[in-house]
Target: ABC transporter substrate-binding protein
Amino acid sequence: MKVNVWLAKAIAIFSVSMLASCETENQQIAENSLIYCAEGSPASFNPQTDTSGTTIDAIANQLYNRLIKFNDDNSIAPALAKSWHVTRDGKMITFYLRKDVHFHSTDYFYPTRLFNADDVLFSFNRILDSEHPFHLVSEGKYPFFQNVQFSNIVKEIEKINDHTVRFKLHQANSSFLANLATDYAVILSKEYADLLAEQDRKDDIDVHPIGTGPFKLKSYQPGSLLRYYRHDNYWHNNVALEQLVFDITTSDTGRLTKLLTNECDVIAYPIAPHKIQENPELQLEEVTSFNIGYLGFNTHKPPFDDQRVRKAISHAINKEAIIDAVYGGKAEIANAILPKNSWAHDKSIQPHEYSPIKAKQMLIEAGYKDGFSMDIWAMPVQRAYNPNALTMAKLIQADLSEIGVQVEIVSYEWSTFLRRLSLGEHQTVLLGWSADHPDPDNFLTPLLSCSSVVTGSNRALWCNQEFDNLLKLALQTTNINQRKNLYFQAQAIIQQALPLLPIAHSKRFQARNKKVKGQLLTSFGGVNFAEVSKQ
Model:
């Protein structure tokens, strides 16, 4: 096997730090392999089933492809579909598929055919059809697709022939193609699924992945190490890296140390940017991201079921201090959910000014003259939209103490944090959102629609039917001025109800050894090593 030849010629030894319960493992790494220090473990090996940034970074672009993708300028480009046609009424989209695409050959699956239309139908019908034999695998949760109400958009998917597929929609949808270009709309192998069903191992489809992407899974040690090997039959380009290792290092200091000592070639969410920039062997890069960091109020729990209390809290928080202390000045204050570079951003929205005096007055009006006690859940991982939730929580804790509100800061291990959030145990939470594509619907629907309460991305648990109706109307027209007007109305509702407090729009940073060449970061979605090399 080629892998054995490569191992025999390996010339570098590296050590990977594990959790306290794990043993240290020494592995030989070849020069054309790369170690990426990630901040956490993926929650799934199928991005259809999980929307967390950690999962998307680790798997979406490494293991899988979509029918279409985004170009660097955010236009839509061919991928597994070489071309497509949209009817004049916008209700039918026909995709013409490539004929030369190989699925991964691994220790646990060997494909006997190339990618075809059956794989497309399987990948999406699993999501759409509640009676599909694989629908309830991974608990039947497909967050992104459920957030955008995919089943209400798609009427039917038809196989025209082995290399032609037609999506029939109930009605025209202005963001449909953008949704199919996201990191979640990946194509799975129906042949692999059929084998798993025959062997009564259907759960393996999201645990032992098979895709068409540039890398294939070799091994995984949760909380420690994720190892990929090159997919030698990758259809798109010649992949330079023979091996890609995700070294899971939750400590931001730990990741920086490993970069400085050459134990990692690239690190996620770097700290100490000046130290990195001063090192002649390192490079700090940034990309402008469509994101929002926010404080979400659980609108089902007192006292945050009262919008007067939510507004009082918003007036008590000093956003400028947060931008300086948490983002190092590398972010802008968010006055609204949509960032200023969104075409649907309403410039007329006035921010909630920082005014402890006004905050106290509003608490008195709401019946909390002597204040109250509350919790803030601070996520335990770093994100571009919030690089240090614990520090942010402490700043807010100090701000709120000035108006008589006592804050307890709560945090858990990441998977536990997400699980308990989904149960609605929190009062408030510091979280955020990184957009999957540039359409404004990708901010508003996942964060605040009624459907996203069910799927779990609406952490405010806020549901407003007037707001939902505006979003639906905006998707039914391609007239940009009509859409903009509808989104302006939707933002006005948010500003009045304040289910969450926008705090910051930030940039995403990454640090690498200068030996690493090629583009990794994009405005949307996870990192991509398909065209990365190491000199």
